[in-house]
Amino acid sequence: MTANRIALACAALMLLGVPVPGLAWQAPDPSSLPDDAWGREVRYGRDLITDTPRLIGSEATDPAKRLEPSGLACSNCHLQAGTKEFGLPLVGVFGDFPQYRPREGRVGTLEERVNGCITRSLNGSPLPVDGPEMRAILSYLRFLSIGTPIGTSTPGRGAGTMKLLDRPADPVRGEAVFAQICAVCHGADGAGRMAADGAGRMAGGGAGREAAESAGQEAAEGAGRVGAGGAGREAADDIGPVPPLWGARSFNDGAGMNRLTVAANFIHANMPNGTDWHDPALSVEDAWDVAAFLISRPRPHAAGLEADFPVLRQKPIDAGYGPYADGFDQAQHRFGPFQPIEAARKAGLSTGGKPAKPDPAATTPPGPRAATP
Ligand code: HEC
Ligand code: HEC
Q1: pTM above 0.70?
Q2: Most buried one in 115, 198, 278, 305, CB count within 10 A?
Q3: Number of structural domains found in the chain
Q4: CATH number of the domain that 47 lies in?
Q5: Per-residue pLDDT, 353
């Protein structure tokens, strides 16, 4: 087929709602929905994802709605309102639930999964499962999955799976990467740049990377200005609000983003903000090391983490907290190298000599997964 005919065939498939491997999906746009009950519900769900602090967070006018104290919106991680390839997209998620959840050791619902992110990624209190906010979030998630048949693998889910390092990821090297590349936006103290009204939310968008590149260059010339604090932020004033990466208003230590493989892949595919996974800005090594620095920083503690993953052999290889059943220590589970742990699991050492089943939790929670960058 000629390139033209391939493009035509892909366009036809996309019109039919068939996901085309290797191509970005056509994310449906809720603004195109009419002003009726469904359209309003879906748009409210979208707003809850992108404008979380104002609607159910620290900035909510009704104190009863302030369920989460963080400076984060869902879309700070589920980029572009949950539609960005390898930006933890929410396209296709609706049909994956209910699903077996290794973290809880039982089948869980989509409502429970959303509350998992609210209590860990936003360090908040769960939404009432039958309340208007949960209904709207589920409506938006269903809307995003229209055209994705249940059980198909959506291209671009998750954050990717880079090559593993054969040494432990190095937070000290990562700190230098952070000072040089990330601090200009996220602040040398990792606290982000809140909007004037106190929000860490973002309009999304792709202008950030260029702004950071020029700002970063300036900072590099000014020898350590970014590391020193204030100057880097001024240089990046046209970037807008940026979410915190650690400290009291960040995700807690039970969140998925606090796992090395999740953070490293997310950063490699998406940071500096505006980066696309086809054209990563960081080397693979820098991404692992800066992620190691990130997960070493102080953040809120979630109670009861030792009860996670009741079936220990299903615990992700990079879970930052014990107990572990495989004889590798916490440092190696947090920073790697992971190959020896994987090899031991394959050999069945953690299952009393029986060969281990393929571990559904080894990278990200189960669900159809696609080819990775
Ligand atoms: C151009 C400014 C900019 C630079 C530089 C940048 N980020 Fe970000 N980062 C953002 C913005 C903005 C968001 C939120 C994106 C959104 O809401 O659409 C974000 C989100 C994140 C998130 C997920 C949300 C959270 O708060 O945990 C992580 C993790 C992250 N960045 C890490 C990094 C790391 C590590 C670097 C350096 C390698 C980096 N970023 C460089 C602007 C930047
Ligand atoms: C600090 C980053 C972060 C924030 C903020 C966040 N999440 Fe998540 N979320 C994650 C990670 C990491 C995963 C695991 C992704 C995977 O399985 O590939 C996840 C998974 C999910 C899933 C399941 C996706 C799947 O592929 O199975 C849903 C649904 C979800 N989040 C909803 C939300 C909602 C709604 C909010 C806001 C109330 C939110 N998240 C806020 C990081 C975040």
Answers
A1: yes
A2: 115
A3: 1
A4: 1.10.760.10
A5: 38
